[in-house]
């Protein structure tokens, strides 16, 4: 069997693909992205910390709650650890009565730095109304990341990407 490395061009750029030549045709295989499901409730993500039972009618409620408790909660929250690769973060709004979003970025990402927009990883979006679920696609390389919801004012939770 002969192996041939191909480059596929698509919406996300150029991707390496391993192809196998079988009887004159090439069969290409691309690994599907791994799905990471995250559930938002008022002022927090359930998947990395215990449900605190917070009630919130607006972003301001969460800002007040997190001002008092975010530091301690993050210190005791679960750190997500993943391998480098392609991911879909499937984020759901469970009973939060206002629109939410999601923001995943490299730990040292600064949105005000124009160079970071060119060479740092950051994926974000809104539109998560009550009961909605949205997918956020990203390719992660080794390093430290943060994720949060600026609209629900959650703490900045830690995500580590490493080879082993």
Q: What labels would you give this structure?
A:
single chain, 164 residues, mainly beta, 12 strands, 15% helix, disordered N terminus
Task: Tell me what you see in this structure.
The structure is a single chain. The chain is mainly beta. It has two domains: 1-30, no CATH class; 34-161, Cupredoxins -  blue copper proteins (Immunoglobulin-like), CATH 2.60.40. It contains two helices and twelve strands. The strands form three sheets. A five-stranded mixed beta sheet has the order 6-12-11-8-9, with no helix packed on it. It has a four-stranded mixed beta sheet with strand order 5-4-7-10, with no helix packed on it. Strand 11 and strand 12 (157-161) form a beta hairpin. The chain is globular and about 40 Å long.
Give a short synopsis of this structure.
The chain is mainly beta.
Q: State the share of residues found in helices, binned by percent.
A: 10-25%
Query: How far from one another are the termini?
Result: 30 Å
Main β sheet profile? 5 strands, mixed
Low-confidence stretches at least 5 residues in length (pLDDT < 50)?
Answer: 1-22
What fraction strand?
over 45%
CATH superfamily of the largest domain: Cupredoxins -  blue copper proteins
What's the count of strands? 12
User: Which architecture of the largest domain does the CATH hierarchy give at level 2?
Assistant: Sandwich
**Class by alpha and beta content:** mainly beta
Q: How many domains make up the coordinates?
A: 2
Sequence of secondary-structure elements: EEEEEHEEEHEEEE
Task: Please give the radius of gyration in angstroms.
Answer: 19 Å
Classified by CATH, the class of the largest domain is Mainly Beta
The best one-word shape is globular
Mean pLDDT: 85
Helix segment tally: 2
**For the largest beta sheet, what order do the strands appear in spatially?**
6-12-11-8-9
As for the CATH topology of the largest domain, it is Immunoglobulin-like
């Amino acid at each position: 069997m002969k192996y041939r490395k191909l480059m596929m061009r698509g919406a996300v750029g150029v991707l390496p693909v391993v192809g196998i030549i079988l009887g004159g045709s090439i069969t290409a295989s691309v690994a599907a992205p791994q799905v990471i499901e995250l559930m938002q409730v008022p002022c927090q993500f359930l998947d990395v910390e215990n449900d605190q039972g917070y009630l919130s009618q607006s972003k301001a409620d969460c800002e007040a709650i997190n001002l008092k408790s975010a530091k301690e909660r993050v210190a005791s929250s679960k750190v997500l650890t993943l391998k480098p690769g392609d991911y879909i973060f499937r984020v759901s709004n469970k009973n939060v009565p206002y629109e939410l979003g999601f923001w995943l970025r490299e730990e040292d990402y600064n949105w005000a730095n124009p160079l970071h927009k060119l060479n740092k990883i950051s994926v974000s979006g809104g539109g998560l109304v009550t009961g909605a679920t949205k997918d956020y696609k990203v390719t992660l390389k080794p390093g430290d990341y943060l994720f949060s919801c600026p609209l629900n004012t959650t703490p900045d939770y830690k995500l580590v990407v490493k080879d082993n």
